[in-house]
Amino acid sequence: MNSYVHIGGSEVLSLKGALLVYQGKHRGFVAWHEVRQGKENAPYLGEAQPLTTEFVHGLTQGLGARIPLEIFPESVLVRTAETLVWWCPAQHRIMFFSDNDPQAKKLNGKRFPNPALVWKVSGKDLCVRALAANERPAPTTKLMTAPYWNVAGEGGWTCQGSMRSPEDFSVAAIDLWERAFFQSEFTHQTGAIRLTTHPGGFFGLWETLAGSRKPFPAGYLTSAKETLQEFVTRS
Questions:
Q1: Rounded Cα gap, residues 27 and 21, in angstroms
Q2: What would the pLDDT profile of 142-154 be if each residue is shown by its tens digit?
Q3: Pairing between strand 96-97 and 111-114?
Q4: 3-state SS, residue 21
Q5: Are 200 and 207 in contact (CB under 8 A)?
Q6: What whole-number distance in Å separates Cα of residue 30 and Cα of residue 47?
Q7: Which helix (H) or strand (E) segment is 33 a member of?
Q8: CB–CB of 207/199 below 8 Å?
């Protein structure tokens, strides 16, 4: 069987070594084997060498897993090579709704108070939760369901639809993610979780808040049944 790998670009690459996995009945390990040149320049693998921390760091950087040096604003809660989590305080924002729903159309383009939010970008996925208190959350802070269409109440996953999502999730892209979220249209409810306890439901909540200068009434948020720690570590 022949295998082919396309990595793009015109850079000339040379074989340096191989990682081999050794597995016994009760344990296993990975070793590095450096490529050596034999007779007539035929390559062969040298003896096994233990992996070092420096080697692993160098390998991950070469594979693009290196995190650039960044100065974190106070809003950042978590930063890894795969995930960025931050929070934003409660604020008033203009929101856009689809014209396909008569009730939603009446809300389109108006200004609303919004609760404090927690955002998580992992890969290309965006998840959003709300906060009952307008303050930086702690690991044990209980999160609330984000009261928006397009956001699944079950896990906070966002259907990005018309969102012009940034290409990366660096700290510098935080404002871009927030703008992309609120400048896109809220088109439909995602999932079966109740988004608000307002007696008038979803539309009753936002119709009441349209044009209001008061803070978002956090008492109408529903529990997400998870803490910040659980939200961050959940895949």
A1: 11
A2: 999 999 999 999 9
A3: unpaired
A4: strand
A5: yes
A6: 13
A7: strand 28-37
A8: no
Residues 33-69 pLDDT 10s: 988 888 777 888 888 888 777 776 666 665 655 667 7
- Is residue 105 within 8 A of residue 208, CB to CB? The reply is no
pTM of the entire predicted model = 0.74
Pairing mode of beta strands 28-37, 43-49 = antiparallel
Straight-line distance from the first to the last Cα atom of the chain, in angstroms, rounded to the nearest whole number: 35
Sign of CA dihedral 145, 147, 148, 149: positive
Tokens of residue 32, six digits: 């590095």
Give the DSSP letter of residue 157: B
Tokens coding 128: 């959003």
The phi, psi pair for 54, rounded to 5°, reads: -65, -40
Residue indicated by tokens 């259907």: 159
Closest CA to 85 of 180, 179, 169: 169
> In which element (H, E) is residue 232 found?
helix 228-233
- Side chain identity at 40, as an amino acid letter? E
